């Protein structure tokens, strides 16, 4: 409690309104992984119907379409939101996703699917550049890292929900031709997102940064109650002193508007180390989350770790791979929760990410050895699950936490958007690459290349982490 018997946003206790803000923001993370999961399931279903099967390029295009959209949407909406405010685009993004998902259901064509996934990705890209900013600025400093981690952890639920609902749908009909109906899962989540944001408000710190102090105060009251105020002088960094994006809010609020947005090249020159730390490891992590994540059903079949028989219908082979995918996806949430617990212990964030990358590389090598030497299926399955566990304890969680920590508030949307765009560029390349690698060298080549990329992510994180967020 502060002066005049009011709470400061940065030091107030958590309330149900905080949890509501986190829930609304986390839906963007949830739908992002749901789309990737559904796309990875649709590809083998279309393969069953296609004669001949989809080429490696077409498989990669379907898997990468939403990622390309995310890359565009992250930069586009990140920069627009810095200029015009967050709220408009926070509502527009789920609307784009909803409309595109419904079009893909009622116009069941492969090229229509690709276009719709691209539009869906644009909406999700906007989510990625906005949701962390809302959570970061409205949570008390003590709980900021935890709530950012919880928001990101919702992506684990997207994997589980997507796989579970798709499995139920496939087993209910046992017909590969129902693949367009799976897009209704995405439409349903997008509708929930849109409805939850009808009664939402503009970013208070964005308003303050643009000199609209009265509107900023009103927005804080709408979000958190009339007894809460937005400080313009109290420290905005967490107790570890690492949340540098929140330092100097007075200077940010009074900066000239011409300094708030710059061209992408000028931005990357000025914030080169921050871009390297937040973007390049995100690209490496994108291989695991999207490159491998999208093609888990196909990798499961290539590695032979699903339970099948020679006389099964092709669609049941897909169903069995979805079951295994569901098992693997279930380990993602514990990974996030462990990561959130560790970040709350004030562990050095880049160090956590670097160690996570190294652990991912080791588990991929173990999976490769298990496959090559024909070890028991359970060893391969556990290796795959450990890869997902470490990926989400470290890289997948930390790439979300870093941008709001290392960019000043007046360019935070742009910085977060550029980081997400670089991350999705890596993911796009990975999604195109994995079907080609599968064709050229099978699972061995996929796992070997992936392990090397995880190691690169660890090295980049360690080097630039020491420059941007040095340990005391």
Would you mind describing this structure in some detail?
The protein is an all-alpha fold and 472 residues long. It has one domain (3-468): Up-down Bundle (Growth Hormone, Chain: A), CATH 1.20.1250.20. The protein has 18 helices and two strands. It has helices at residues 16-49, 56-84, 87-106, 110-138, 141-173, 183-196, 204-209, 213-224, 249-254, 264-270, 272-294, 296-303, 314-330, 332-344, 349-372, 377-393, 395-406, 412-468, and strands at 7-8, 228-229. The protein has a two-stranded parallel sheet with strand order 1-2. The model is unreliable at 233-260 (pLDDT under 50).
Q: Can you tell me the CATH superfamily? A: MFS general substrate transporter like domains
Which architecture per CATH? Up-down Bundle
Unreliable stretches: 233-260
Would you tell me the overall average pLDDT? 86
CATH topology: Growth Hormone, Chain: A
List how many beta strands DSSP finds: 2
Sheet having the most strands: 2 strands, parallel
Helix content: over 70%
The 3D shape can be described as globular
Terminal Cα separation, in Å? 31 Å
Q: Please identify the top-level CATH class.
A: Mainly Alpha
Strand order of the largest sheet: 1-2
Number of helices: 18
Notable traits:
mainly alpha, Growth Hormone, Chain: A, two-stranded parallel ribbon, 18 helices, 1% strand
Present the secondary structure layout.
Blueprint: E1 7-8, H1 16-49, H2 56-84, H3 87-106, H4 110-138, H5 141-173, H6 183-196, H7 204-209, H8 213-224, E2 228-229, H9 249-254, H10 264-270, H11 272-294, H12 296-303, H13 314-330, H14 332-344, H15 349-372, H16 377-393, H17 395-406, H18 412-468
Parallel strand pairs: 1-2
Helix pairs in contact: 1-2, 1-4, 1-5, 1-6, 1-11, 1-13, 2-4, 2-18, 3-4, 3-6, 4-5, 4-18, 5-13, 5-14, 5-17, 10-11, 11-17, 11-18, 12-13, 13-16, 14-16, 15-16, 15-17, 15-18, 16-17
């Amino acid at each position: 409690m502060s002066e005049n018997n009011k709470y400061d946003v940065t030091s107030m206790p958590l309330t149900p309104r905080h949890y509501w803000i986190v829930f609304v923001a986390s839906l963007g993370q949830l739908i992002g992984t749901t789309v990737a999961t559904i796309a990875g399931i649709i590809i083998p279903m279309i393969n069953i119907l296609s004669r001949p099967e989809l080429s490696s390029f077409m498989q990669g295009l379907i898997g990468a379409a939403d990622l390309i959209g995310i890359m565009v949407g992250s930069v586009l909406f990140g920069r627009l939101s810095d200029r015009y405010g967050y709220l408009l685009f926070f509502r527009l993004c789920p609307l784009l996703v909803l409309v595109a998902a419904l079009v893909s259901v009622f116009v069941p064509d492969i090229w229509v699917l690709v276009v719709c996934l691209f539009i869906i990705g644009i909406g999700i890209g906007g989510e990625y550049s906005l949701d962390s900013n809302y959570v970061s600025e409205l949570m008390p400093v003590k709980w900021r890292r935890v709530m950012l981690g919880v928001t990101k952890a919702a992506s684990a639920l997207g994997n589980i929900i997507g796989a579970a609902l798709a499995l139920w749908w496939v087993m209910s009909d046992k017909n590969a031709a129902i693949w367009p109906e799976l897009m209704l899962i995405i439409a349903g989540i997008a509708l929930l997102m849109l409805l939850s944001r009808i009664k939402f408000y503009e970013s208070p710190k964005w308003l303050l940064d643009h000199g609209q102090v009265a509107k900023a105060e009103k927005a804080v009251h709408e979000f958190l109650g009339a007894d809460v105020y937005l400080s313009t002088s109290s420290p905005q960094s967490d107790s570890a002193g690492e949340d540098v994006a929140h330092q100097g809010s007075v200077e940010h609020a009074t900066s000239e508007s011409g300094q708030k947005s710059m061209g992408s090249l000028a931005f990357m020159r000025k914030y080169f180390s921050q871009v390297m730390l937040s973007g390049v490891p995100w690209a490496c992590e994108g291989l695991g989350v999207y490159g491998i994540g999208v093609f888990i059903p196909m990798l499961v079949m290539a590695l032979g770790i699903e339970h099948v028989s020679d006389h099964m219908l092709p669609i049941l082979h897909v169903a069995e791979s979805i079951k295994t995918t569901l098992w693997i996806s279930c380990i993602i949430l514990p990974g996030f929760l462990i990561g959130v617990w560790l970040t709350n212990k004030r562990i050095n964030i880049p160090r956590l990410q670097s160690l996570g990358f190294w652990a991912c590389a080791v588990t991929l090598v173990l999976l490769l050895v298990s496959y090559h030497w024909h070890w028991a299926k359970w060893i391969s399955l556990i290796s795959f699950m450990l890869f997902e566990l470490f990926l989400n304890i470290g890289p997948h969680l930390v790439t979300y936490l870093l941008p709001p920590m290392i960019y000043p508030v007046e360019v935070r949307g742009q910085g977060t958007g550029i980081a997400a765009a670089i991350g999705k560029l890596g993911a796009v390349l990975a999604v195109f690459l994995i079907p080609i690698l599968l064709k050229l060298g099978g699972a061995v080549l996929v796992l070997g290349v992936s392990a090397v990329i995880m190691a690169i992510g660890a090295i980049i994180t360690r080097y630039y982490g020491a420059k941007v967020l040095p340990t005391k």
